[in-house]
Specification:
Elements: E1 21-30, E2 33-43, E3 48-53, H1 59-67, E4 74-79, E5 82-85, H2 91-96, E6 99-102, H3 114-120, H4 134-147, H5 163-175, E7 185-189, H6 197-212, E8 216-220, H7 224-230, E9 233-238, E10 241-247, H8 252-260, H9 264-267, E11 280-289, E12 292-300, E13 304-308, H10 315-322, E14 330-335, E15 338-340, H11 345-350, E16 353-356, H12 360-364, H13 371-376, E17 384-385, E18 388-389, H14 391-404, H15 421-433, E19 439-443, H16 451-466, E20 470-474, H17 478-484, E21 487-492, E22 495-501, H18 507-520
Parallel strand pairs: 3-8, 3-9, 6-7, 7-8, 13-20, 13-21, 16-19, 19-20
Antiparallel strand pairs: 1-2, 1-4, 4-5, 9-10, 11-12, 11-14, 14-15, 17-18, 21-22
Length: 521
């Protein structure tokens, strides 16, 4: 996706033309949890207004009220001079008011063409007998792609596009019916969470051009460097309350303090020296499965091994194969110098391997179960004696886990879906770490969680390896890998093509080695 002038309304920049959105005294309670408590702020037209806060801060609830998914308990919503009762919001009203949403995982259809994806966002152009006018539909798609400067053919299957261009198509689809003016409000919720670095830069540059052309954007992200780079205004929420609305350009340290209530120094846990390891807890040789191809490496007790690669490189396949989901096609695995035959997740668990997948909602959590059930389900057998559940013992253990892992929850019997992303991730971590695994496989452990929750999660990882486990961590955040990893493996096309150790484990070196292959392939 390239960028250029976007004639949304004929303007040349974000001149102050009043107020696009006014949020007044938004309040929302879920049971005992006060998700929003009298939050108020304004969004100016033609600006990028960042909404930030830790997990559980209330920003997701606020976005869902704007979308009509939730109704506020109190408050009003002003959109370009018209005032609405926030307690009566519906999806239809939200759309009529001009709100358009693009989420972390855009609702696109990879097997359909770009033109078909764009048509689904509005309607197919039809003629006699309700037949689709494909020539007109294609011309319409070309116009939209040119308008939003998305570098793609209307006939290409969406899956063949880069992640940034797929997001560009999602944005074009969301805004296509507002092409005569810029009255719509684009709400982007963590749009770069799964994008590689270069695609992030392309998308952010495009958003700045959209705003310069008059588009109003509300931008939600945990990535503070993005907020500092593109936000005209920043609204910070914490524990459901408004902390401040201020101009962009804040230092990262100041943003961290506002979001968490703690200083950057209190949250940082950087390595200070290179450590030596000897006792290998995991040895892998010739592992193949999924996109992984003939992979060999080892991990020692007390070590954090990072794995870096672009999306589709095979990095996640390595972890999935080691956990038997699905079973590897070839290779040998040893845990504590004992051969392990991994044919299923049960085999991996029996060998002392734990796995926290990237897809927290789809593969790691049981959303229809309670916090208590999610904490104990991986080790539930211990609570059955003579066929009867020892619920008192189970509850006592769950309560201790909530305390030990600093999980914020209104109660053990509340559904996991009532928790913020960071607290849900802590529940999943607690479920596995209580088993005292020898090997911990973590795929994007801090994706979609705030700065404070990220620090807490890495404390849990550090505690586990300090007690003798070995950790293998896949992350798209190369700064995170450089901060916490003892070694980093570079993966490309399913194979390990490089390794960084000691003082060479830096964000710059990881980025260079990962991207070097993409330039030559």
């Amino acid at each position: 996706m390239t960028v250029g002038p976007l004639p949304l309304d004929g303007t040349t920049g974000p001149a102050d033309r009043g107020t696009a959105v006014t949020i007044s005294q938004f309040s929302k309670r879920f049971g005992a949890t006060q998700a929003l408590d009298g939050v108020s702020f304004e969004v100016k037209p033609g600006t990028i207004h960042a909404l930030v806060g830790g997990n559980g801060s209330g920003k997701s609830t606020l976005i869902k009220i704007l979308a009509g998914v939730h109704q506020a308990d109190a408050g009003s919503l002003g959109v370009r001079g018209s005032e609405q009762d926030a307690t009566a919001m519906t999806p239809a009203l939200s759309r009529d008011l001009g709100f358009r949403f693009v989420h972390q995982q855009p609702s696109v259809f990879p097997d359909l063409t770009v033109a078909e994806n764009l048509a689904i966002g509005s309607s197919f152009l039809t003629g006699f007998g309700s037949r689709v006018r494909w020539k007109a539909q294609r011309a319409r798609a070309v116009e939209l792609l040119e308008r939003f400067e998305v570098n793609a053919s209307p006939d290409a299957e969406l899956r063949t596009l880069s992640p940034a261009n797929q997001t560009g198509v999602a944005i074009a689809r969301a805004l296509q019916d507002g092409e005569e003016d810029s009255s719509s409000i684009l709400v982007l919720d963590e749009p770069t969470a799964s994008l590689p670095g270069p695609d992030v830069d392309v998308l952010l540059e495009a958003l700045q051009h959209y705003a310069a052309a008059g588009q109003t954007i509300i931008y939600v992200s945990h990535r503070l460097e993005e907020i500092r780079a593109i936000a005209d205004k920043v609204t910070v929420l914490r524990d459901g309350k408004l902390i401040t609305t201020t101009d962009g350009g804040l230092t990262q340290g100041r943003l961290v303090e506002l979001i968490t209530g703690r200083s950057l120094e209190q949250l940082s846990h950087r390595k200070v020296e290179t450590r030596a390891f000897s006792n290998k807890v995991l040895e892998v040789e010739g592992l193949s499965g999924g996109a992984a191809n003939n992979v060999s490496f080892s991990v020692s007790a007390g070590e954090v091994l990072g794995i870096a690669g672009l999306m589709g490189s095979g990095r996640s396949s390595i972890l999935r194969s080691l956990f038997g989901v699905p079973a590897p096609n070839a290779g040998t695995v040893r845990v504590d110098d004992k051969p392990v035959h991994i044919r299923s997740a049960g085999d991996a668990m029996a060998a002392g391997i734990a796995y926290v997948p990237e897809d927290r909602n789809g593969m790691a959590s049981f959303s229809d179960m309670t916090v208590l059930e999610n904490l104990t389900i991986a080790d539930s057998r211990r609570y059955f004696k003579r066929g009867r559940l020892q619920s008192r013992s189970e509850r006592a253990d769950a309560k201790k886990l909530v305390s030990d892992f600093t999980v914020k929850t209104a109660g053990l019997d509340h559904p996991l879906t009532s928790l913020s992303g960071g607290n849900a991730q802590k529940v999943i971590m607690a479920r596995w770490l209580r088993r005292e695994p020898r090997v911990i496989l973590l795929d994007e452990p801090s994706q979609g969680v705030d700065f404070g929750a990220r620090a807490d999660i890495w404390k849990l990882i550090a505690r586990a390896v300090a007690e003798g486990a070995g950790a293998v961590v896949v992350s798209s955040d190369f700064e995170e890998l450089a901060t916490f990893s003892d070694r980093v493996l570079i993966v490309r096309h399913g194979a390990i093509v490089g390794e960084l150790t000691g003082s060479d484990v830096t964000e710059h070196n990881i980025d260079r080695l990962v991207l070097m292959g993409s330039e030559n392939d």
